[in-house]
Specification:
heterodimer; A: about 325 residues; mainly alpha; MetI-like fold; 2 domains; 13 helices; globular; B: about 500 residues; alpha+beta; D-Maltodextrin-Binding Protein, domain 2; Dipeptide-binding Protein, domain 1; Dipeptide-binding Protein, domain 3; 3 domains; 11-stranded mixed sheet; 4-stranded antiparallel sheet; 16 helices
């Protein structure tokens, strides 16, 4: 049943990816902009400019370029980056883990913080606690993630310098890791010093990314919890003498989670998009930062590769979301 | 093994606490490590191919790892590099170069004249992707005799040897490159320069170790870390928090604030980068009165003083004072009254202004958009109404190459070798894809100078071109930029007029 569901969703993803690929490829070539314009050195002649176009295959028709690119992409080859002169697949593969770790940590922080706020607000419903949760989540929601990032840099990087401001790890040390999943590998190999260093570098960007999502989770979950606390089973548990906190956590939370999971899944896809600015501000070497460089340099092969990567990520997140619904709600598991 | 929930939470909190609340490592220049919060990342390790080869901002990194054929002092004067002596033969049909003895690559193998020949041959090969191929392709038929290399030249080029200290003028190790290939070289580059690559994470950092066998002597700082911090406010935070020892290219307001802080020092240097407004030879710029009025209406000193806090040098030609063909006698004075009179002669006034578009970047250079706004205000007072159009720098390159810039377009022009061919020449000569004013009168003056063998005559010729351009208001030069550098007072930093922040010139204070 699960395998069929996964297979069906994967099959649906193929035309989506193809559509994205065609749209991006054509749009990038139709909008004004010459990728080699920034490479033209002083003194270059018109022939030199034509030579540069030919070097990167830009002298062919859009259709010919697409056929060539699509053929290579089917084999996992997204071509060579114009600005970095390296294999696009390799570049993305080396940078994607940094973004994935950042997004996962941000999502974990957002879920933990949002849930804690929602539970606390529900526990103190109608009182000062709920008002405080509403105020905190209101501020967290109103301020964009990059403003949080800049604020954290000033606060924890300059005024009270306890966290590193930029990068992914201390550049004066050799990490000695074999994969690009620094945090995960360091934790698995119990290299806690490295894990601590990597985590310290991730903390500010992850919290900046997480705060707006945490606020949203807190609001939706608190509302769902309030509804669940009015249900018969919750009232019965209270009558039986269980504490309000216990009923919230043990009884109501699971039932209230479904709409929150749905919302979180959608928001996590936005979280991936949010890494573009956050990675820039914290000089964090993920695909968001790479995307900005690619756009500035009009690096068509790299932009195409990155957009397809983002598309695949969105599809995978949505698939995971579908599967998590089934795990939470038995009615969906059994059709 | 059973893990209790309480134990798991406690463990997680311990890790999170330890990870978060620990004092940040302070950069320690005095201990032999200098950390630079650098404003751009390093896209590629090959300094002779691709867009990064012509990106002036990253030349400092290349110059740390690789040697150029010819070196350059901080004042832009030339000095022996891997070539100890060089010159043209008497007939001007070929060149000779004496290669330095005793130089070794970072892997310990000797640098030979064959490496020089291979580097020049590769640079001149159209298939290799060197953007300056049009310069290197002039040479052929290389011969080696001991340490001397000779080559034939298709034509005499008075600037050829200056290019050897400029973009793509780097020597790469033939044997190593051929052994590991382009990808292998990207993964583990070696050069003969003062620093060796120790670790590199693209878009994050580069760690260099001093080369103990460097022919120019081992650098004073053992370890140099370039942190790629592209956001200016993050660079300010890096230096202010003590996480980095040096940073550059920060807003002048921040520079003024930081240089007064205890433990920090500031250096400002006029660099080989000028702000200018291209004038395109289309209406209404074909009217000389309009062009002259445009130039006369702009108070450059006011722009520098008020917008750039005094960090800039007003200029009247495309030659900065450090350039060879700079002529202090060429002046285009600020005279708004005269500007209004000239416009009146052409039928324009404040009530009936001449109208055109001016293009500019926004945030690409310090206060670029604000400067154009101020200039448009100055123009308005004499009878010029200009609409501002903001574009990305890539768009500027594209429009300029297609000769489709607006009648006026702001740009910055770098010329790290300070030669007039690479400033006035490429900016004003019609066949160049970088010129905006394309007329035969200017071409007739510039044309003979490309191959002029008498250096004094050549420089005098360029000065005459600059005077002609100023007299006819064919371009509007604005200012020479000033590079701000902030560093810890425990470190000595020597600025370079090219703008390249070279760690090999650092030393403990």
């Amino acid at each position: 049943m699960l395998a069929c569901r996964v297979f069906a969703r994967a099959a649906q993803a193929v035309p989506t990816l193809l559509g994205v690929a065609v749209l991006v490829f054509v749009l990038l070539r139709v909008v004004p902009g010459d990728p080699v314009a920034m490479m033209i050195p002083p003194g270059a002649s018109a022939e030199d400019v034509l030579r540069l176009h030919a070097l990167y295959g830009l002298d062919r028709s859009i259709a010919a370029q697409f056929v060539l690119w699509a053929g290579q992409a089917m084999r996992g080859d997204f071509g060579i980056s114009i600005s970095l002169r390296q294999d696009v697949s390799g570049l993305i593969a080396s940078r994607l883990p940094a973004t994935l770790e950042l997004v996962l940590l941000a999502a974990a922080i957002a879920i933990a913080l949002g849930t804690a706020l929602a539970v606390f607000g529900t526990r103190h419903a109608g009182g000062g606690g709920e008002a405080a949760v509403d105020a905190v989540s209101g501020v967290a929601l109103a301020v964009p993630d990059f403003i949080w990032g800049l604020g954290f840099i000033v606060l924890f990087g300059v005024v009270w310098p306890v966290l590193p401001i930029s990068g992914r790890a201390d550049p004066t040390h050799t990490l000695g890791l074999t994969s690009h999943f620094y945090l995960i590998e360091a934790l698995l190999r119990l290299r806690l010093g490295v894990a601590r260093d990597v985590l310290a570098h991730m903390l500010m960007p992850a919290v900046a990314l997480a705060l707006p999502l945490a606020a949203m989770i807190a609001r939706v979950l608190k509302s769902s919890l309030a509804e669940q606390m009015g249900q018969d089973y919750a009232l019965l548990a209270r009558v039986k003498g269980f504490s309000r906190s216990r009923v919230i956590v043990r009884e109501a939370l699971r039932n209230a989670a479904i709409p929150t999971v749905s919302l979180t899944g959608v928001q996590v896809t936005f979280l991936v998009g949010g890494t573009v600015l956050i990675e820039r501000i914290f000089s964090y070497p993920g695909i968001g930062n790479l995307a900005i460089e690619a756009v500035i340099n009009r690096d068509l092969p790299l932009i195409q590769g990155l957009i397809l990567t983002f598309a695949v990520l969105f599809i995978l997140i949505n698939l995971a979301l579908d599967l998590s619904y089934a795990a939470l709600d038995p009615r969906l598991r059994h059709g | 093994m059973q893990v209790s929930r309480r134990g798991l939470i406690a463990g997680g909190l311990t890790l999170a606490t330890a990870g978060g609340i620990v004092p940040v490592r302070r950069a320690r220049a005095a201990m032999g490590t200098a950390t630079i919060a650098y404003n751009v990342g390093l896209p590629s390790w090959d300094p002779t191919t691709g867009p990064s080869a012509v990106n002036p901002t990253i030349q400092a990194i290349y110059q740390s790892v690789f040697d150029q054929f010819i070196g350059q002092n901080p004042d832009l004067s030339f000095t022996p590099g891997l070539l100890e002596k060089w010159g043209w033969n008497a007939a001007g049909t070929g060149i000779w170069m004496d290669v330095r003895k005793g130089v070794v690559w970072h892997d310990g193998s000797p640098l030979t004249p064959d490496d020089i020949v291979w580097s020049l041959t590769r640079a001149g090969d159209p298939k290799a992707g060197n953007p300056i191929q049009f310069v290197w392709g002039n040479l052929s038929n290389f011969k080696v005799d001991g340490q001397r290399v000779t080559a034939d030249a298709k034509q005499f080029d008075p600037v050829l040897f200056k290019w050897m200290a400029f973009l793509t003028g780097f020597v790469l190790p033939r044997a190593y490159y051929e052994k590991v290939g382009a990808a292998g070289f990207e993964a583990k580059p070696i050069g003969s320069g003062p620093y060796m690559v120790d670790a590199f994470e693209r878009n994050a950092f580069l760690r260099l170790k001093a080369n103990p066998q460097y022919w120019g002597g081992k650098p004073a700082i053992e370890t140099v870390v370039f942190k790629f911090v592209t956001d200016a406010s993050a660079r300010v935070a890096e230096i202010e928090s003590g996480s980095s020892d040096v940073t550059l290219e920060i807003p002048y307001e921040e520079y003024d604030r930081l240089r007064k802080k205890k433990g920090l020092k500031g250096i400002t240097t006029p660099v080989s980068d000028i702000g200018m407004i291209f004038i395109t030879n289309v209406a209404p710029m074909l009217d000389a009165n309009v062009r002259h009025a445009m130039v006369m209406a702009v108070d450059k000193k006011l722009l520098v003083d008020k917008l750039l806090r005094g960090y800039g040098v007003p200029i009247d030609t495309l030659e900065a004072p450090q350039y060879e063909a700079f002529d202090p006698n060429i002046k285009t004075p600020h005279d708004p009254k005269k500007a209004a009179e000239l416009l009146k002669a052409s039928g324009f006034s404040k009530d009936k202004p001449v109208r055109f578009t001016i293009q500019t970047t926004r945030g690409f250079k310090p206060k670029d958009y604000e400067m154009i706004q101020a200039i448009v205000g100055m123009w308005r007072r004499v009878g010029i109404e200009a609409d501002i159009e903001v574009y990305e720098i890539a768009k500027h390159f594209e429009l300029r190459a297609a000769h489709k810039l607006a009648p006026a377009a702001f740009y910055n022009w770098g010329d790290a070798i300070g030669d007039p061919t690479t400033s006035t020449g490429f900016a004003m000569f019609s066949p160049s894809p970088h010129s905006a004013w394309k007329t035969p009168d200017v071409d007739a003056m510039i044309g003979p100078l490309w191959g002029e063998r008498d250096e004094a005559k050549r420089i005098a010729g360029w000065k005459a071109v600059d005077r002609y351009i100023a007299d006819n208001a064919l371009v509007l030069p604005l200012l020479q930029y000033v590079q701000p550098i902030i560093h810890k007072d425990s470190l000595n930093v020597v600025p370079h007029v090219s703008g390249a922040l070279q760690p090999q010139r650092f030393s403990p204070a």
